[in-house]
Amino acid sequence: MVTKMYEALIEVPRDDWDALVFTLAELDCVQPKAIKGKIHDEEILSLRERVEKIHKSLESIMNTYNLHFTPPPLAFLRKEKRYRIAVRAKSLRELIINMENEAQRLVSRIETELKRNPAILDILKDKGLMWQLEDYVQRLGLDLKELLTFKHFYIRLCLAPNVIMNRFRKTCEASGFFMISTSIDEKHHLVLVISSRKRIEDVDKLLHSLNVIPIDTVYYLRSLLLAFHEVATNVRNMFEVLKSADMIEDKVRIEVFVPYKSIKHVKEALSKRVKLLSFEVRESEEEAPVLIESPFNKVLSLSSLPRYHEVDPTPALSITFPLFFGIMFGDIGHGLVLLLFGLFLRSRSIEKRDWGTILATFGIASIAFGALAGECFGFHLERIYESIGIHPLMSIYTDHEMNISKIMQLLGIAMLLGIFHIVLGLVFKAINLIKEGESKEALLFVLPVIGFYISGILVVAGTEYVGVLVPHDVSRVSTIALLMFALVAIFAVPLSSTKSIRTTLGLVLNNVIELFITVLELTSNTLSYVRLIIFFMVHTFLMSIVNMAWESMHLAGLPILLIGNLGIIALEGLLAFIQTARLHFYEFFSKFFKGGGEQFKPISLTTRFSEIIMSE
To answer: What is the per-residue pLDDT for 257?
Structure first.
């Protein structure tokens, strides 16, 4: 559901402005309103300019020497262990002053080190190699700051070409240096060289003579640079908050959006840091930013977010999306693979946790429908089911032969699901119209259209063309209801208005055309849901072909079986997702969903490389 949003007017003394913006950023649940404030304080403007200069200088050296951090493509598959650098200050003013001094020294040290070892530049430009270095340093748990500051030992972390490793190892043994190495790719070894601090010059000469590149200092300085750049970006974003603030005499006033459940927490946090002169809240009546606390907001955002006062389709989406996917991808084994991969993704990456949850629900739904179909990795489990006296409800096979009658039943069930889905969309449309003050349109056109649609379905179900699925009496009553709902949909709104005869006739003609178009759309939409069973059958047929390798070749066909299963999980999984999305975004959303909502984007602190600590 869309989280209820409140507007808060916060007022603090002028001297508390920095504590205010830092606390709001730290809370990560407040979005300033998009209004232009008036700040004319010289100190604030000066500090903002200084932060911009710091950010630009750090950004410049990162661009010049390719020092940006780019995670590898599959980084989310492993847990990240990154050492964050703590930056302490008593106030935002002090933090900016400290950053100015540290940034200048850091830029100077990096440039000096790169001039001393220009070969490091080639390493920095090689993204693949940098990813390998990142991975190994994290795996080994190396704290490069400690490596560089041991009192009695001199330790260098180096990158050495594989072709010189034998010579490098022998030279280190002959010189009395201890060496630990590991291969990181087909061309390079990562090497730790350890000696007494009395032999610093000997170690450096040896590394230089063999063209071995020390990377520890630059790597550590790069870590510092990434941390300070992140801090500068965070502080810069804090000043963006002040663009929505007003400074009136000796007070700072700012209006923000706050989720209802966070109001108490925000007030308590601010009370500890600043002197709150005012904290007034009211429920947002205008178009507020949208916060949907459901993993399926990721799926919804592929289309658009609902507006704040619009019906939120996420609760329905969280049920019907896995349901439709599970039908098309119904297989116990493949569902188990999706479930395990989803749980793995949840445990490995905070950023991908929602997608992990979505995949896990897809897996559960696929397992459930796979059990109903008696399918496991494409193998039919009919004999196992028969041994316990049951028959799989969704199986399209009888004695290993296709059962056409069962397929037709499943197609009918798929269309029934579609009818329910379409009716739900029309109900949501009526609710949206009522919220917009168009109750007459909702009650006198949309609801009759729903009745017309259901009556039409019952009339068709009573014909011989579909096998007389409902009694003739029900079909006859539905025919009368069909005509009545059509008349209400065409004439109710025009006749309830007090406009001229000409205008009324125009409205009647418009309703006739709209009802005709609606009938065509609803017919097309309903038939579209047969894809649920068609793609389930495609999945089953493809797996039957792959499993022929096992049945004919046994163990020799195992590689084909494994590769085939992986390929079908990837390809069919993607196709099932696309088709499920189509049924929702076109057949379902087209009935009611306008979208265009603004996502709730709270001011927050990025803490990948750094941590800002405001101490008393």
So the answer is: 93
* 167 contact partners, CB below 8 Å, separation of at least 6: 210
Give the Cα separation of 454 and 420 in Å (integer). Answer: 10
Q: Are 245 and 255 in contact (CB under 8 A)?
A: no
State residue 3 phi and psi, 5-degree precision.
-70, 135
In whole angstroms, give the CA distance from residue 334 to residue 89.
53
- Residue 141 or residue 279, greater confidence: 279
Helix H segments across 28-75?
42-64
pLDDT in tens, 70-81: 766 655 556 655
Please tell me whether residue 303 adopts helix, strand or coil conformation. coil
Please give the Cα distance from 44 to 493 (Å, whole number). 59
Taking CA atoms, 391 is separated from 327, 330, 383, 542, in Å, by 18, 16, 9, 22
Determine contact, residues 491/504, Cβ cutoff 8 Å: no
Q: pLDDT by residue (tens digit) across 465-511?
A: 766 677 878 888 989 999 999 999 898 888 877 667 778 888 888 88
H or E segment and range at residue 30: none
Residues contacting 490, CB < 8 A, separation 6+: 508, 511, 512, 515
Give one DSSP letter per residue of 96-112, joined into a string: HHHHHHHHHHHHHHHHH
Q: What is the rounded (10 degree) CA torsion for 484, 490, 495, 498? A: 160
Q: What is the DSSP letter of 3?
A: P
> What is the DSSP code string of 554-607?
GGGGHHHHHHHHHHHHHHHHHHHHHHHHHIIIIIIGGGT----PPBP-------
* Gap between the Cα atoms of 273 and 271, Å rounded: 6
Specify the pTM: 0.82
Burial readout 82-98 (b: 16 or more C-beta within 10 A, e: otherwise): eeeeebebeebeebbee
Q: What is the dihedral of CA 24, 26, 30, 33, to 10 degrees?
A: 50
Contacts for 573 with CB less than 8 Å, ≥ 6 apart? 329, 334, 338, 362
Which residue is it, tokens 């220009």?
Answer: 118
Dump pLDDT digits (tens) for 25-46.
888 899 988 766 666 778 888 8
Q: Both ends of the chain: CA-CA distance in Å? A: 40
Q: What is the number of residues in the chain?
A: 616
Query: 352 with 79: CB under 8 angstroms?
Result: no
